């Protein structure tokens, strides 16, 4: 499970995070470390690979870029140094359209689109803590992909800075990507049988 580790009651920063072993994957949410080490399932990886391919092909000659985990996204970090950054996530897929936010460590600031593919270990955190965090960070579009039920739940940031009602798509649907005018993904291709 993706539980926070027990490390006293202190908050950790990205500076601390950079000193931890590369043998394990971690995320920080409001300074609380979460171990992300359990390996994802084959179905998770299949769905992630298909989605990444769709974005990668579409963005090939465009200014936006797509990244697949592990890729550090430092939220609320645009004007801060590493010791003042308390939120570092590794979304399954990250789309960034502002080149100034990309550096050698990953993304510094809010991406335009984040995709999380659920696994038993991360589902609760992806649906609750991360959804709230991505809303606070003003991520324009957030997808929660459920590979077992073959659904995609899409949250779009509204003018008031909040995610309101989400739209849920199933394997039979065509999903129009909100941040791009001309990208539609056929979910039959994403949730195809192995």
Automatic annotation (TrEMBL):
The keyword Hydrolase applies. It comes from the Bacteria. Residues 16-186 form the Putative restriction endonuclease domain. Gene3D superfamilies: tt1808, chain A (3.90.1570.10). One of its GO terms (molecular function) is endonuclease activity. Keywords: Endonuclease, Hydrolase, Nuclease. It comes from Effusibacillus consociatus. InterPro entries: Nuclease_put_TT1808, Restrct_endonuc-II-like, Uma2. This is Uma2 family endonuclease.
